[in-house]
């Protein structure tokens, strides 16, 4: 429902986990528009090996759910042994072949099995490729993408823990991200904390931010 000012409200939008070619294509097109066309990052570096194992989400209007207006991805981290080369991906699946929700969740559970610390299993994830089309910026839709993505991740790990044959269930998820310097304050509002010094990534200064998501 729109507000009295005519601007869209949170109830007008959906955050959708991408599980088919069309949804993945929409996520890709938003990324190309924002990171390549607007910000000038290399087209060749836009798709990387993490795309094939990530949970991709799109923001869409309920009245037109097939058109992506924003996107975000959560990648299992660390992901050693899980990555694949991305050369030669078909044009209709630029971010890799579609995965089911269970297949996506399994990749995050595996990081928990590798991330045991102090008798607690800690899953890991890396937040990335958060992008909104220009007309939607500054209205809180980035927060909606982050919060809905975090909620999906927490629920997926809880379900996996409930069905696990292991006695030691995943108890938390450590999320990290590389923030561009101009948007650090946004991530701080979302509960992320900066660590270390700025570093170069793809020719632009970034900073590491982290957050612990309890399960």
Automatic annotation (TrEMBL):
<feature type="domain" description="N-acetyltransferase">
    <location>
        <begin position="14"/>
        <end position="214"/>
    </location>
</feature>
<dbReference type="InterPro" id="IPR016181">
    <property type="entry name" value="Acyl_CoA_acyltransferase"/>
</dbReference>
<dbReference type="GO" id="GO:0016747">
    <property type="term" value="F:acyltransferase activity, transferring groups other than amino-acyl groups"/>
</dbReference>
<protein>
    <recommendedName>
        <fullName>N-acetyltransferase domain-containing protein</fullName>
    </recommendedName>
</protein>
<dbReference type="GO" id="GO:0006048">
    <property type="term" value="P:UDP-N-acetylglucosamine biosynthetic process"/>
</dbReference>
<dbReference type="InterPro" id="IPR000182">
    <property type="entry name" value="GNAT_dom"/>
</dbReference>
């Amino acid at each position: 429902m729109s507000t009295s000012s005519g601007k869209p409200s949170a109830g007008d939008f959906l955050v959708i986990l991408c599980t088919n070619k069309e949804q993945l294509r929409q996520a890709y097109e938003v990324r190309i528009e924002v990171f390549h066309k607007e910000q000038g990052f290399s087209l060749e570096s836009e798709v990387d090996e993490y795309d094939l194992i990530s949970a991709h989400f799109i923001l869409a209007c309920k009245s037109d759910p097939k058109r992506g207006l924003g996107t975000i991805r959560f990648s299992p981290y660390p992901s050693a042994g899980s990555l694949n080369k991305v050369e030669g991906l078909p044009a209709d699946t630029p971010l890799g072949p579609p995965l089911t929700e269970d297949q996506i969740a399994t990749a995050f559970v595996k990081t928990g099995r590798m991330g045991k610390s102090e008798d607690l299993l800690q899953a890991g994830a890396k937040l990335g490729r958060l992008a909104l089309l220009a007309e939607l910026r500054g209205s809180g839709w980035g927060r909606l993408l982050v919060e809905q993505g975090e909620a999906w991740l927490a629920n997926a790990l809880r379900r996996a823990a409930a069905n696990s044959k292991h006695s030691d269930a995943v108890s938390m998820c450590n999320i990290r991200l590389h923030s561009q310097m101009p948007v650090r304050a946004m991530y701080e509002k979302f509960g992320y904390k900066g660590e270390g010094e700025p570093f170069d990534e793809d020719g632009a200064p970034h900073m590491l931010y982290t957050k612990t998501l309890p399960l």
